[in-house]
Amino acid sequence: MNYYSENGRFHDGHCHLSPSINEEAFERFKGVIHCALSRVDKPLVNLMSTNHIDLQFVRQLAMEVPAVFPSYGIHPWYSHLFSVVPVNTEEEKRNHYHQILNPPPSQELLTNLPMPIYLNDHIKTIEQYLEEGGAIGEIGLDKVFRVPYSGFMGPREGLGLSPCRVSMNHQIIIFEAFLRMAQAKNRPVSIHCVGCHGKLLESVQKIIKSSSLVTLHSYSGSYDQFKLWMKKYPNIRLSVSKVLNLDKYKDTLQKISSAAKETTFVLETDLSLDMLFLDAPNKHLELLKTTYEELKSIQGGIDLGSLTSAFEYCIGDQTNN
Ligand SMILES: [Zn+2]
Question: What is the pLDDT of residue 57?
């Protein structure tokens, strides 16, 4: 089915692969998406990597499917898996998690947590990938997230959440490392924020100088906070999803739309592409269409042309890469 060839103007500014993705599921998904998007020769979806596992899948898919554009980052829900110094021994592993988790992890949780990955190594890999093209995301700060007893969100689920939160200090170190990469390489960033909008703006405005690099995904801040962003970054985008914020933050988004530009809003699903496509090949497009209708009810003047321009900002000018 080639429905995207007629409807190729619906873009997804922020989406994922399942946290539980593995080789076998990935291969099946690739078959379906190849078929659905075979006639599309330019980016339609901005696919986020969040950790060391989905990184390879995101890159591989982007290399094989022209409709898929890659973004590389460490999501705040995985930041505890990365260390700022190399960690090799059990003792060093314990020290790492004791330093960054609050309260410190129980023995049960510590056993399930993997040996952390050295942040600089991960960043070097991503810098290499960016030479082939790509943007930065998903990155950000999250004050509410708690580490699952399984160690991280992934194949092993069902153990519930521990009381442990990742220190803001550690999250900021990782977040700012990616912001510096974005500024140095002039790549757009897709940013997640829960419960710490002031801190987030502080980090971003310290590092990102260009007005057009910033996309706040599923924005949950206030109208006043948005005005602060707008003052510093007039070309900022907010990517909005049906699932996360169009229903919940409708009143705020309504106010924001009065101060927004034509290219402020971007459509996103923030969902796992593999789940959507394996469920039904047209599900992704249908969801984007519904999101578009809802966004139109908030900002009447919006059309697919302005949304396309906004999406192009989200992936940046790839011709100079
Ligand atoms: Zn996301």
Answer: 98
- C-alpha of residue 107 to centroid of ligand 1, in Å: 30
For the chain, the straight-line distance linking the first and the last C-alpha, in angstroms and rounded, comes to 32
Instruction: Judge contact between 131 and 321, C-beta under 8 A.
Output: yes
Spatial distance between the Cα atoms of 135 and 59, rounded to a whole number of angstroms: 11
Q: What's the CA-to-centroid distance between 193 and ligand 1, angstroms?
A: 10
**Binding site per annotation, positions for a divalent metal cation:** 14, 16, 138, 192, 217, 270
- Per-residue pLDDT at 319: 60
Helix (H/G/I), strand (E/B), else coil: 274: helix
Contact 33, 61 (CB under 8 A): yes
Ligand 1 center from residue 218 Cα (angstroms): 8
Beta strands in 143-205 (DSSP E): 165-166, 189-194
Domain containing residue 266: 3-320
Per the document, the length of the chain is 321
Q: Cis before residue 188, ω within 30 degrees of 0?
A: no
**What is the CATH number for 289?**
3.20.20.140
Q: Is the pLDDT of residue 6 over 60?
A: no
Q: SS3 string of 96-145?
A: HHHHHEECCCCHHHHHHCCCCEEHHHHHHHHHHHHHCCCEEEEEEEECCC
